[in-house]
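Write out the 3D structure for:
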Amino acid sequence: MTVVREAGAPPASRPRPAGGSARPGRGGGRGPAGSGVWPYLLIAPAVLGMLYLLAYPLVRTVLISLQDFQLRQLIQGDARFVGLRNYQTLLTDAQFWQVVRRTFLFMAVNVTLIMLLATLVALVIERLGRVGRIAVLSALVLTWAMPVIAATTVFQWLFHSEFGIVNRALQQLGFTSFDRYPWFAHGTAAFTILVVLIVWQSVPFAAITLYSALVTVPTELYESAHIDGASARRIFRAITFPMIRPIFMLVFSLEVIWTFKAFVQIWVMTNGGPGDATTILPVYAVQTALSSQRYDLGSAASMVTVLMLAGVLVFYFRQMFRQEGEAL
């Protein structure tokens, strides 16, 4: 039966469900007010784990750097607070500043070579066919997946003074002076080998990341540039690099961090030697803590390393954001 409502009469109210509220999400704890705590509960284990693994060691290092903490205090636990005395001792040590200069040189050489080679490799991959692209990317992934200790051991074998392949190959090419040449007994040679090792390990990640950014550049921009007669260098400078610049800067920042705190390769291959030719700040901190049993000075060196790295990144990001602001 059809019900006819007179004009101007108020509409009939809808029946409410029994035992419920007229507004959705207000009853039963199923609305926003009832579910607001669940996201925090879900991320709580990850946050607590991060605080335990990152924040606690950092705080503990800061505390040790402010104490007289040597082997006796490590065993008995009666460390005495000395304030900034460890930092004063460290910053007035001439050897420490030599290590700082070597660290920045090591970082600059590695990052420059990594970004240059990675950009070239990414550009080459972009221009390869399907088969060549798959082959090169597979080789990069396998290189990237190789464990650090395994790669370092292989390089030790390659440059072994008596059985190394490098010495054998150089002798066959006519360089007889490399017969039983002790690569790791010369500071410059050991430094160069470490640079080659770290660059070889770091280029795959940077190249793959930059290639993923290159494929996002619209092809219409390249077609227009070719029609206008632009050269390849001009196209890269005016189109390619501005488009991939955010990813390029991200990779650059990551490589600065990774090379600045490189430790495993140096410790396994040269232990900071010969002498201190390959000693950078992380290695210096460990040597001070373990060899001299000065855990307070080692912690202070670690904190100075963190502050220097943070300063480099802050300066770099300020310059980057300033340039982006000027471009806008």
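Residues 1-9, 17-29 have pLDDT under 50 and may be disordered.
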